[in-house]
Write a structure and sequence with these properties.
single chain
Length: about 140
């Protein structure tokens, strides 16, 4: 059985078009899958580049230039993004979710599956740290 990890792209998706990232851990392949009305799906698998690390960070669906830092922390438009970082600063976005627990669970599963490091840039604004994969 194939070991697939599927991440949803909430910032892009709506009820007509859905986006997901599918990672085949065994074959070291991935695809950006696009769907229409939840029925039609397409996207081709490509080889994964050499992954430097898995990154979790927090961002906003819509920018709020007048918002204070306190408003940023509690903003209902904030979401967590899980990405695969390669070539030092290139990213493959795997998941976008409002759930911190969901983001970190998926990030940990991807990091363990790909045998790479996990970086947390979401928990403390402006600070980044490496997380241990040993539970």
């Amino acid at each position: 059985m194939k070991d697939l990890i599927i991440g949803k792209r909430g910032a892009l998706s709506n009820w007509i078009r859905q986006f997901a990232t599918v990672i085949d851990i065994d074959k070291k392949m991935y695809k950006i899958q696009e769907g229409l009305l939840g029925v039609f799906k397409w996207g081709a698998f490509k080889p994964l580049p050499k992954i430097d690390y898995v990154l979790v960070f927090r961002s906003l669906f819509a920018k709020c230039e007048a918002c204070s830092l306190e408003q940023y922390e509690n903003n209902p438009n904030a979401y967590f993004q899980v990405s695969l970082v390669y070539n030092k600063n290139r990213r493959i976005i795997v998941e976008e979710t409002k759930s911190k627990e969901e983001a970190f669970a998926l990030a940990r599963a991807v990091a363990v599956g790909l045998n790479t490091r996990l970086r947390d840039s979401a928990s403390i604004r402006g600070q980044s740290s490496w997380l241990s994969l040993i539970s």
